[in-house]
Amino acid sequence: MTCKSHINPNFSHQIKHISNLKVVWRKDTKLDQAIENDKQYKLCARVVKEILNEPGQVIPLRYLEKRRERLRLSIKITTFLNRYPGLLEKYYDRIKPKTNPVLFLRPTVGLRDFLEEENNIYAYNEELIVAKLCKLLMMSKEKVLSVDKLAHVKREFGFPNNFLVDLVPKYSNYFKIVGYPGEGKSFLELNSWNPEFAKSVIQLRAEEEAKLTGISVRPNFDVKLPSGFFLRKEMREWVRDWLELDYISPYEDVSSLDQSSPEMEKRTTGVFHELLSLSINKRVAVPILGKFSNEYRFSNAFSTVFTRHSGIFYLSLKGGIKTAMLREAYKDSELIDRDPLLEIKDRFVELLDKGKSERADQLRVQKEEVKKDIEMMALRSEEEEEEYDTLGCDEQM
């Protein structure tokens, strides 16, 4: 629901203290399934990344086998290769000049084609990537973020591997690196403020609705409780009053706000909404968000926001890790608010499916050949038996 009524300036004093309000966590199997659906993709991506990070992008099979636990791979590498053909190919080579040849792994032609296509998709969406990076900096209190932290979340937001080396220097009007790169003490700093980037998804949505209807729309959260989910009366009243507070943009300076105030709760919720909206899958693991607590002014108990506002977020426990998800971005387990950079994932999944299809065709041909061989053997056996019987009859005559 989107509230459009005017605000009583004294509303914030009428709202009960946040810490007194509790919402029981409830499992959402459909949103959990969205995470489960990505398990295959993430597993394959981890293994491929391991190969690509090796010198020459090749590795002895037995070396990769020893890294299974670190890769969280529960099956043997040979089983993985059979299950996901089309990613890696085997060949023999020597580890050292005078040693015996051993099995090595390298990317297939199909995987190399995908990597080239991935670079093209990144290049096509370069403006989007730059805008995302600017927005992450613009929401931070000092307009500065640790380079190490940004590198750690590059996959969540769709940044290419080399964005700090190639992209940042190219857009020196927006960014500059300060500190000591390579020593864990370097930071990315915002050089200039672009007002076009300083609009949140919620604000842009309100502007779009106003254009369509011709009626001024006040920016606010879209609250949709899942089917069968009910809030206690006290909590319903708190949410109603809290929604009546002015929306505070995540790009506004809130240094004067009390950390425990309802207004700060609204701003924090807005930051989380914007961060999840900027992410590729509209979901981010809570420990990753926690790394930026200081930069984005999150309280120590920031994760309670996701359960307290269950109509905006869902806190999944799938896979033994807490993941914050944006409800409005999903319909059941399907992502409907799709980031353009998701095309990379789509192409990778197509490569996996193609490899499986080709493998299935090979197995079918092999089975048919075996079946033909068996039939030929049976036919020969019958002919030999007939010939034997004929010879037996001739001898009797």
UniProtKB/TrEMBL annotation:
Which keywords does this Swiss-Prot/TrEMBL entry list? Coiled coil
Which portions of this protein are annotated as coiled-coil regions?
Answer: 360-387
Keyword Repeat recorded: no
Q: Name one Pfam family in it.
A: PORR
Q: Report what the protein is called.
A: PORR domain-containing protein
Output one GO MF annotation: RNA binding
Keyword Coiled coil (UniProt): yes
Domain PORR stretches:
27-356
